[in-house]
Design goal:
Layout: E1 8-10, E2 20-23, E3 30-34, E4 40-46, E5 51-57, E6 65-66, E7 73-77, E8 83-88, E9 91-97, E10 105-113, E11 121-123, E12 129-133, E13 143-147, H1 150-153
Antiparallel strand pairs: 1-2, 3-4, 4-5, 5-6, 7-8, 8-9, 9-10, 11-12, 12-13
Length: about 160
């Protein structure tokens, strides 16, 4: 099939020869997001007919872990690097991340339906709210902040 033919790579500033290829062009990798601790890269790759969320050590070595079971878009890390948020199937998801264990990907939970919200988002530094851009309608634009979602994670 068609699609973009780009590879996902990491370049250390000041070291132009330090390019580390994270994913090959065949996977249509995109949307790389560094973990706050600088050890991992969350990104999307298309290998199973749709984009899924993967995490790999930033140096490009070691195991690659698939995080999403049914498609994914737009990954974002929590500030403590213990949760990865992403959108899929008209919902916001949270995946637990525990590096240093045999299976670092923990439970994946749907947090809420996106409805008319767009898929562009960020997470507040306290991980207590999302900022999301809703599509523009003819009368007004709005930004939606979803607060207290952390309570959903403990259920």
């Amino acid at each position: 099939g068609g699609g973009c033919r780009s590879r996902l790579a990491v370049l250390t500033l000041g070291s132009p020869d330090s390019i580390v290829v994270i994913e090959d062009a065949d996977t249509q990798a995109r949307y790389g997001e560094f973990s706050p601790d600088g050890r991992y890269l969350a990104y999307l790759a298309r290998e199973v007919g749709r984009h899924e969320l993967y995490v790999r050590p930033l140096d490009g070595t070691g195991t690659r872990w698939r995080v999403s079971p049914t498609g994914a878009g737009r990954p974002r890390w929590s500030r403590d690097a213990r949760t990865i948020f992403y959108v899929a199937n008209d919902s916001m998801y949270a995946a637990e991340w525990s590096p240093g264990t045999a299976q670092p990907v923990g439970a994946v939970r749907a947090l809420f339906r996106l409805g008319t919200l767009g898929t562009a988002f960020d997470v507040l530094a306290s991980d207590s709210a999302f900022v999301m851009v809703a599509p523009n309608d003819a009368e007004r634009s709005r930004i939606v902040v979803v607060a207290n979602f952390v309570r959903q994670l403990s259920r």
